[in-house]
Amino acid sequence: QVQLVESGGGLVQAGDSLRLSCAASGRTFSGYTMAWYRQASGKEREFVASIDWNGGSTTYRDSVKGRFTISRDKADNTVYLQMNSLKPEDTATYYCTVMGRAYWGKGTLVTVSS
Asked: Alpha-carbon distance 53 to 48, whole Å?
């Protein structure tokens, strides 16, 4: 059974940094794309960033380019999201997922105060 467990969220001030982690287990993720999504209160869930497990190629939504970095550690089966220069509009619950599969974590809350 696939499990995705996010951690690393918290309350920070604008301009601060956070690193989110997603511990993945239950299968091999070779050949899949891992991604981070986020959902702010009252809004739809939106794509943030993705990474190809094998080759490491990445994609980002425009609003986080240059500020966020997605990475993965194959040995630990962990996906990271390094978030720098955080803005209040980044406030949301962040979720880890395997793209194309119905695997989601429970999320970790990031709150950025102005």
From this structure: 16
Contacts of 108 (CB under 8 A, 6+ apart): 6, 7, 8, 9, 20, 93, 94
**pLDDT tens for residues 38-90?**
999 999 999 999 999 998 899 999 999 999 999 999 999 999 999 999 999 99
Q: Given this model, what pLDDT does residue 88 score?
A: 98
Sequence-separated contacts (24+) of 61-67 with Cβ below 8 Å: 63/89, 64/90
Beta strands in the chain (DSSP E): 3-7, 10-13, 18-25, 33-39, 46-52, 58-60, 68-73, 78-83, 92-98, 103-104, 108-113
Q: Which residue has the tokens 């695997």?
A: 103
Q: Find, among 88, 110, 86, the residue nearest to 17 by Cα.
A: 86
What is the amino acid identity at position 59? Answer: T
